[in-house]
Amino acid sequence: MAIVRGSDPATNVRKAIEALGGMGRFVRHGERVVVKPNIGWNRLPEQAANTNPDVVAEVVRLVVAAGAGKVWMTDASVNTPEQCFARSASKSGQGSRRHRGAARCSAFREVNVSGKLLRTGDVLFPFIEADRVINIPIVKQHGLSLASMALKNWYGVLAASG
Fold first, then answer.
1. Residue 7 three-state SS
2. Nearest partner of 75 among 97, 32, 105, 110, judged by Cα
3. Ramachandran region, residue 114 (left: φ > 0; alpha: ψ -120 to 50; beta: rest)
4. Which contacts of 4-11 are long-range, i.e. CB under 8 A and separated by 24 or more positions?
5. Are 157 and 76 in contact (CB under 8 A)?
6. How confident is the model over 50-72, as a mean pLDDT?
7. Which runs of E-coded beta strand occur in 46-150?
């Protein structure tokens, strides 16, 4: 665990990853990596409904710099994925340029989960193909659990059921 304080999110990410041994400790050259922020809502960064775009962009930059062969940035958005990704990364007018190096993905693949009641499920396909997964949640209030954090962010791997 690394605790970093400061006013610049990207600098804080760099310092935290450096304190943990650098991104190369987690990502190897040529690996396929999924970066999983919380980008579930069609909201601006200032509304703090999604993971801070500066944090996401810096993690993607560090993963690419560590030599990842493929990087996906994905979430199963509640609102239209294209709108959520565009608007949540629109800080400073950077829009789609913000997460250079990461392909955005909202495509699902049916997988066998071998359960007694649930036999198959629709999962965002990069999670099936990835060598590494990096979870970047946002801590925020949640009506059912009081706080939404890392475990809750995994809900964005699955397709919403009818």
1. coil
2. 105
3. left
4. 8/54, 9/52, 9/54, 9/55, 9/58, 10/54, 10/55, 10/57, 10/58
5. yes
6. 94
7. 70-74, 103-105, 108-112, 120-124, 132-136, 140-142, 146-148
d(CA 156, CA 38): 7
pLDDT at 161: 55
Degrees (nearest 5) of the Cα angle 62, 73, 70?
65
Strand order in the sheet with 103-105: 103-105, 70-74, 32-37, 132-136
Which ranges of 76-123 does DSSP label H, i.e. alpha helix?
81-88
**Which token pair is 95?**
């829009």
- Tell me which amino acid residue 137 is: P
CA distance 120 to 111: 5
- φ and ψ of 94, to 5 deg: -85, -25
pTM of the model: 0.85
- For the chain, give the longest Cα–Cα distance: 49
For the cut 60, the answer to whether the pLDDT of residue 155 exceeds it is yes
- Indicate the residue type of 81: P
Half-sphere exposure of 115 (CA within 13 A, CB side): 7
